[in-house]
């Protein structure tokens, strides 16, 4: 069974530029999560989708971050404009449904903002 | 509010030693889940174990064992006879349920 796929794996941009990350969850998983992991810290939830609807985006900095999951499968996370403090690893995870307990994580995208 | 504390930032052991990773959590929920994840240098978080708040039975799975004590809000993780491949960052997490709240992680280094 294929795991959670993410691309790109690495991205370097200058501050004030925009960037987008892509995630393809495990087939059949209805719930998708985006986490931000700053160096030396644990992952922090940014946004949670159930199919193509947003369940929780309370920690998403909406002035610069946006995310969508249009067809209830793939998802895109965008940052515009990026700030230095956005440098982090962005992890995508999926689970069978909102009640399922195990979340399966992708390899992450390491973003460096200079 | 949900909170997970991993007081140990780094642990170094020599291969074949046993090592215990500590985790203390805070929650007002009566139903919750606790997890341990492993993050090797490749960066991917690997699910290790889940425990629900009603199941305090401790378990051993191969070289891994877990000690869940609700009275002290602790969920500790032990690796017996550690191996070099166990070197990674280990995260304890709490689910309320749905979103995961992670601790800051413990970097485990196992030397040959």
Oligomer: heterodimer
Query: Could you spell the SSE succession of chain A in H and E letters?
Result: EEEEEEEEEEE
Summarize the helix and strand pattern of chain B as letters: EEEEEEEEEEEE
Percent range of helical residues of chain B = under 10%
Largest interface pair = A-B, 25 and 23 residues
Number of strands of chain A: 11
DSSP strand content of chain B: over 45%
Residues in β-strands, percent of chain A: over 45%
The amount of helix of chain A comes to under 10%
Number of H- or I-type helical stretches of chain A: 0
Please give the number of β-strands of chain B.
Answer: 12
Query: For the residues shown, what is the average pLDDT of chain A?
Result: 94
Overall geometry of chain A: globular
Structural class of chain A: mainly beta
Major sheet size, sense and barrel closure of chain A: 7 strands, mixed
How would you portray this structure in words?
The complex is a heterodimer of chains A (about 110) and B (about 110). Chain A is an all-beta fold. In chain A, about 0% of the residues lie in helices and about 50% in strands. Chain A is built from no helices and 11 strands. Chain A has strands at about 5, 10-15, 20-25, 30-35, 45-50, 55, 65-70, 75-80, 90-95, 105, 110-114. In chain A, the strands form 2 sheets. In chain A, strands 2, 4, 5, 6, 9, 10 and 11 form a 7-stranded mixed β-sheet that branches. Chain A has a 4-stranded antiparallel β-sheet with strand order 1-3-8-7, with no helix packed on it. Chain A is globular. The termini of chain A are far apart. The model of chain A has no long low-confidence stretch (mean pLDDT about 95). Chain B has about 110 residues and is mostly beta strands. Chain B is built from no helices and 12 strands. Chain B has strands spanning about 5, 10-15, 20, 25, 35-40, 45-50, 60, 65-70, 75-80, 90-95, 100, 105-110. In chain B, strand 8 (about 65-70) and strand 9 form a beta hairpin. Classes of the chains: A mainly beta (about 110), B mainly beta (about 110). At the A-B interface, strand 5, strand 9 and strand 10 of A face strand 5, strand 6 and strand 10 of B.
């Amino acid at each position: 069974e294929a795991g959670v796929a993410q691309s790109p794996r690495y991205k370097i941009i200058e501050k004030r530029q925009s960037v987008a990350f892509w995630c393809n969850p495990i087939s059949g998983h209805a719930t998708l999560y985006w986490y931000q992991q700053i160096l030396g810290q644990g992952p922090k939830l940014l946004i949670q989708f159930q199919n193509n609807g947003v369940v929780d985006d309370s920690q998403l900095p909406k002035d610069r971050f946006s995310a969508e999951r249009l067809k209830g499968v793939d998802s895109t996370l965008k940052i515009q404009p990026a700030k230095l403090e956005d440098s982090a690893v962005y992890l995508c995870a999926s689970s069978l449904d909102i009640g399922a307990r195990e979340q399966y994580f992708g390899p992450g995208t390491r973003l460096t903002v200079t | 509010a949900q909170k997970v504390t991993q007081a140990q930032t780094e642990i170094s052991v020599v291969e074949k030693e046993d090592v215990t990773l500590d985790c203390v959590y805070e929650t007002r929920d009566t139903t919750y889940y606790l997890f341990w994840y492993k993050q090797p240098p490749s960066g991917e978080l690997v699910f290790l174990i889940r425990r629900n708040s009603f199941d305090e039975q401790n378990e051993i799975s191969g070289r891994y064992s877990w000690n869940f004590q609700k009275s002290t809000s602790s969920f500790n993780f032990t690796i017996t006879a550690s191996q070099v491949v166990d070197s990674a960052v280990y995260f304890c997490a709490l689910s309320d349920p749905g979103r995961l709240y992670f601790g800051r992680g413990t970097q485990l280094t196992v030397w040959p």
